Structure formats: C-alpha cells, structure tokens
Amino acid sequence: MARTDPPLDGTEFETLSGFADFLRETIWLKTEGLDSAGLAVTLAPSDMTLGGMLKHLAYVEDYWVGHILLGREPAAPWDSAPWDDDADWDWHSAADDSPEQTRSLWRATVETSRTDFPTDLDRISARANSRGMHFSARWVLTHLIEEYGRHAGHADLIRQSIDGVTGE
Question: Which domain of life is it from (predicted)?
Fold first, then answer.
C-alpha cells in the first residue's frame, strides 16, 4: 500500500479525512510484511505491540465512528469482548489472532468507517460517551487523526527495533 497525500486544496472534510487516511496508511506500512512474531514484539518498558496496535485502532474506528457517531451497536469482536476482565483487551488479544485475522479486522473496520463517515462535519453523534457527552463528526474525525498520529510514532519505534526499517 502506498500512502496518499492529503489534498492541498480540499474541503474541510476532504482535508481532514485525507489526513486520517494518510495516517491509517502509515500504520499499515509500519505493520506490513510482519509475521506473528514481528507483530508481537515489544519495546521495553512498554507491552505495546504492532498487532495490538492494529486491533486497538480497529476498536477505535468501530467505537467512535460506528457506535458513538452513527449509533450502531458494537460489531464483533467488540460486542462480546471481556472488557470487565481486561480493559485493554483490544491490545492484549491480538496475540490470539493470526496476522491475517488482525489485518483483516483492521482493514474491514477502516473501510466501514471510510464508507459510512458523514460528510456533514457538524452532525452530532447519535450516542453519548460514558460521561454523557455528544460529539460532532468534526471532533470524531479529528480524534481519529490524533489517535493514529500518536500511534504512528509508537509504530516507528517498534518497527525499527524489529528489523531496522525506518522512514515512511
């Protein structure tokens, strides 16, 4: 997968979604080609893995776009995840999945988010979060950019520690 630069002269929606896609593609490139062992590598002192990161980001997409913004019930596997036993289940359960399962889950969730995301950035979320707050589509899209941007930096460090791969 090659990264697509965000548009230089797009609408607000095109620009923000372009940056979200650019960062999604960055995460993909940082995890591309790794087997189960590669996706399970940690970089001390963190227990963060690239496989866990992909699964976490799939959860973030489903939670913020599907559940909060669009009002859907959580999709599988989030709907039956043992969150009470492990609040970080999305991060930790990736070790139980094959690389193909993890990548497929992430890709499918991203595609659903891309396809269903409203272009009206003033749209207010169908659901509130646990603190009773509703969000604009603009806020949700900006949050996705922040989430991916933060984890792209983590992915750079972890990937370099695995096989020396650096850069874009």
Answer: Bacteria
